[in-house]
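Example record for the data management plan.
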Amino acid sequence: MRKSTKNLPALCGILMLCLCSCTNDYKEFCTQYQVSFSCDITNVPYNAVNSMGQFITVRKKTGSTSCTVYNPSLGKTTEVPLSEVEIRSFSLGLGGLILGQPYFGDGKSAVYAYDLACPACDKASSRLNLDTQGNATCPKCDIVYDLNNGGLVVEGEGRPLYRYRVTQSSVSTLFVHN
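Corresponding structural encoding:
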Protein backbone atom coordinates (compact mmCIF):
# COMPACT_ATOMS: atom_id res chain seq x y z
CA MET A 1 0.00 0.00 0.00
CA ARG A 2 1.39 3.35 -1.06
CA LYS A 3 1.14 6.33 1.36
CA SER A 4 0.23 9.76 0.05
CA THR A 5 2.78 12.54 0.59
CA LYS A 6 0.58 15.29 -0.87
CA ASN A 7 -0.43 16.59 2.54
CA LEU A 8 3.06 16.42 4.05
CA PRO A 9 3.87 20.15 3.53
CA ALA A 10 0.54 21.20 5.08
CA LEU A 11 1.06 18.90 8.06
CA CYS A 12 4.59 20.24 8.57
CA GLY A 13 3.22 23.79 8.48
CA ILE A 14 0.58 23.01 11.11
CA LEU A 15 3.17 21.30 13.29
CA MET A 16 5.47 24.36 13.07
CA LEU A 17 2.59 26.68 14.01
CA CYS A 18 1.84 24.56 17.06
CA LEU A 19 5.46 24.54 18.14
CA CYS A 20 6.00 28.27 17.57
CA SER A 21 2.67 29.56 18.85
CA CYS A 22 2.45 32.28 21.46
CA THR A 23 2.70 31.34 25.11
CA ASN A 24 1.99 33.19 28.32
CA ASP A 25 5.46 32.44 29.65
CA TYR A 26 7.15 35.69 30.62
CA LYS A 27 10.62 36.28 31.95
CA GLU A 28 10.58 36.79 35.70
CA PHE A 29 12.65 39.97 35.46
CA CYS A 30 12.56 42.67 32.82
CA THR A 31 15.78 43.47 30.97
CA GLN A 32 14.15 45.50 28.22
CA TYR A 33 14.38 48.84 30.08
CA GLN A 34 17.45 50.04 31.98
CA VAL A 35 17.08 50.32 35.76
CA SER A 36 19.67 51.52 38.26
CA PHE A 37 18.30 53.03 41.47
CA SER A 38 19.14 52.97 45.17
CA CYS A 39 17.58 54.43 48.28
CA ASP A 40 17.70 54.26 52.07
CA ILE A 41 14.51 52.55 53.20
CA THR A 42 14.87 53.79 56.78
CA ASN A 43 14.24 57.37 55.65
CA VAL A 44 11.00 59.07 54.64
CA PRO A 45 9.48 58.69 52.03
CA TYR A 46 11.10 55.35 51.15
CA ASN A 47 10.36 53.79 54.55
CA ALA A 48 6.80 52.93 53.42
CA VAL A 49 8.20 49.86 51.62
CA ASN A 50 8.98 48.27 54.99
CA SER A 51 5.28 47.47 55.57
CA MET A 52 3.56 44.58 53.83
CA GLY A 53 0.96 45.71 51.32
CA GLN A 54 2.40 49.24 51.07
CA PHE A 55 3.65 50.56 47.73
CA ILE A 56 5.17 53.83 46.55
CA THR A 57 5.97 55.20 43.12
CA VAL A 58 9.29 56.79 42.21
CA ARG A 59 10.00 58.76 39.06
CA LYS A 60 12.35 61.48 37.87
CA LYS A 61 10.78 64.77 37.00
CA THR A 62 11.68 65.80 33.47
CA GLY A 63 14.15 68.67 33.48
CA SER A 64 14.39 68.62 37.27
CA THR A 65 17.03 67.73 39.83
CA SER A 66 14.60 65.79 41.99
CA CYS A 67 12.71 62.54 42.21
CA THR A 68 8.97 62.45 42.84
CA VAL A 69 7.87 59.85 45.38
CA TYR A 70 4.15 59.21 45.83
CA ASN A 71 2.66 57.23 48.72
CA PRO A 72 -0.99 56.29 47.98
CA SER A 73 -1.74 55.24 51.57
CA LEU A 74 -0.87 58.76 52.76
CA GLY A 75 -2.08 60.46 49.59
CA LYS A 76 1.16 62.42 49.65
CA THR A 77 3.78 63.32 47.05
CA THR A 78 7.32 64.12 48.19
CA GLU A 79 10.10 65.75 46.17
CA VAL A 80 13.48 64.17 46.92
CA PRO A 81 16.52 66.17 45.76
CA LEU A 82 19.08 64.18 43.76
CA SER A 83 22.83 64.62 43.77
CA GLU A 84 24.68 65.27 40.50
CA VAL A 85 25.86 61.65 40.49
CA GLU A 86 22.30 60.37 41.03
CA ILE A 87 20.91 62.58 38.26
CA ARG A 88 23.40 61.07 35.81
CA SER A 89 23.31 57.49 37.03
CA PHE A 90 19.69 56.76 37.99
CA SER A 91 17.63 54.93 35.40
CA LEU A 92 14.05 54.21 36.37
CA GLY A 93 12.83 51.85 33.67
CA LEU A 94 10.18 52.85 31.18
CA GLY A 95 7.81 54.97 33.28
CA GLY A 96 9.32 54.99 36.77
CA LEU A 97 9.20 52.46 39.60
CA ILE A 98 6.67 50.95 41.94
CA LEU A 99 8.37 49.74 45.13
CA GLY A 100 6.73 47.78 47.92
CA GLN A 101 6.36 44.64 49.92
CA PRO A 102 3.54 42.39 48.66
CA TYR A 103 1.44 40.22 50.93
CA PHE A 104 2.20 37.18 48.76
CA GLY A 105 5.95 37.24 48.08
CA ASP A 106 8.18 34.67 46.45
CA GLY A 107 10.35 34.22 49.56
CA LYS A 108 13.42 35.51 47.69
CA SER A 109 12.91 39.24 48.10
CA ALA A 110 11.01 41.25 50.69
CA VAL A 111 10.68 44.33 48.45
CA TYR A 112 9.45 44.10 44.86
CA ALA A 113 10.10 46.63 42.09
CA TYR A 114 7.73 46.95 39.15
CA ASP A 115 7.76 49.39 36.26
CA LEU A 116 5.30 52.25 36.68
CA ALA A 117 4.33 52.05 32.98
CA CYS A 118 1.56 49.74 31.80
CA PRO A 119 3.13 46.79 29.92
CA ALA A 120 0.08 46.51 27.63
CA CYS A 121 0.48 50.11 26.43
CA ASP A 122 4.30 49.91 26.65
CA LYS A 123 4.74 53.71 26.71
CA ALA A 124 6.42 55.89 29.33
CA SER A 125 3.36 58.15 29.31
CA SER A 126 1.03 55.27 30.29
CA ARG A 127 1.78 55.45 34.01
CA LEU A 128 -0.31 53.36 36.36
CA ASN A 129 -2.44 54.78 39.19
CA LEU A 130 -2.06 53.02 42.55
CA ASP A 131 -4.75 52.59 45.17
CA THR A 132 -4.51 51.76 48.87
CA GLN A 133 -5.55 48.10 48.30
CA GLY A 134 -2.42 47.32 46.27
CA ASN A 135 -3.91 47.58 42.80
CA ALA A 136 -2.42 49.50 39.88
CA THR A 137 -4.75 50.66 37.10
CA CYS A 138 -3.86 51.93 33.65
CA PRO A 139 -5.93 55.04 32.87
CA LYS A 140 -5.59 54.41 29.11
CA CYS A 141 -6.51 50.73 28.72
CA ASP A 142 -8.24 50.12 32.11
CA ILE A 143 -6.22 46.98 32.90
CA VAL A 144 -5.88 46.40 36.66
CA TYR A 145 -2.79 44.73 38.15
CA ASP A 146 -2.46 43.16 41.62
CA LEU A 147 0.76 44.41 43.24
CA ASN A 148 0.31 41.99 46.16
CA ASN A 149 0.29 38.99 43.85
CA GLY A 150 3.26 39.36 41.49
CA GLY A 151 1.80 42.16 39.37
CA LEU A 152 -0.71 39.79 37.74
CA VAL A 153 -3.65 41.08 35.74
CA VAL A 154 -6.90 40.99 37.74
CA GLU A 155 -9.13 42.93 35.31
CA GLY A 156 -8.63 42.95 31.56
CA GLU A 157 -6.16 40.92 29.52
CA GLY A 158 -2.41 41.20 29.20
CA ARG A 159 0.92 40.24 30.60
CA PRO A 160 1.98 40.84 34.23
CA LEU A 161 3.82 44.02 35.18
CA TYR A 162 7.49 44.39 34.27
CA ARG A 163 9.50 43.44 37.36
CA TYR A 164 13.08 44.38 38.26
CA ARG A 165 15.65 42.77 40.54
CA VAL A 166 15.95 44.11 44.09
CA THR A 167 18.87 43.54 46.43
CA GLN A 168 19.78 44.98 49.80
CA SER A 169 23.40 45.65 50.69
CA SER A 170 22.59 46.34 54.30
CA VAL A 171 19.52 46.68 56.46
CA SER A 172 18.77 50.08 54.98
CA THR A 173 20.12 50.35 51.41
CA LEU A 174 17.93 49.02 48.64
CA PHE A 175 19.19 48.55 45.07
CA VAL A 176 16.91 48.12 42.05
CA HIS A 177 18.69 46.91 38.92
CA ASN A 178 18.63 44.61 35.91
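Summary line stored alongside the record: Confidence is low (pLDDT under 50) at residues 11-23.
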